[in-house]
Amino acid sequence: MTVTGIITAIVIGAIIGALGRLVLPGKQPIGLLLTIGVGIVAALLGTALAQSVGVATTDGIDWIELVFQIGLAAIGVALVAGFRRRGTRTHH
Q: Which parts of the chain sit beneath pLDDT 70?
């Protein structure tokens, strides 16, 4: 993977991760790096999902693929936030 490819993945991951966080209610206790990581994974999985159902090769913006990616990012952010909340509880 080239430097340009890595930078592109980070930028797209940040955008998809941020959009995934926006569709969730409330505040999620995860940082920027986790958001980007979740976004990158969601973008890759969303693209694979779109290709598997045959909607990844449309003209213009692939809206269905984008919905898959954002939905997966929202699920990923919710899972990570849930694990982080569970790990920060104090037991008395």
A: 1, 56-58, 87-92
State pLDDT tens for residues 26-35. 888 888 899 9
At 83 the three-state DSSP class reads helix
Q: Which residues of 28-42 are buried (b: 16+ CB within 10 A; e: fewer)?
A: bebeeebbbbbbbbb
pTM of the full structure: 0.82
- Residue-wise DSSP of 22-80: HTSSS-----HHHHHHHHHHHHHHHHHHHHHTT-S--SS--HHHHHHHHHHHHHHHHHH
Q: Is 1 helix (H, G, I), strand (E, B) or coil?
A: coil
Produce one character per residue of 62-76: b if its CB has 16 or more CB atoms within 10 Å, e if not.
bebbbebbbbbbbeb
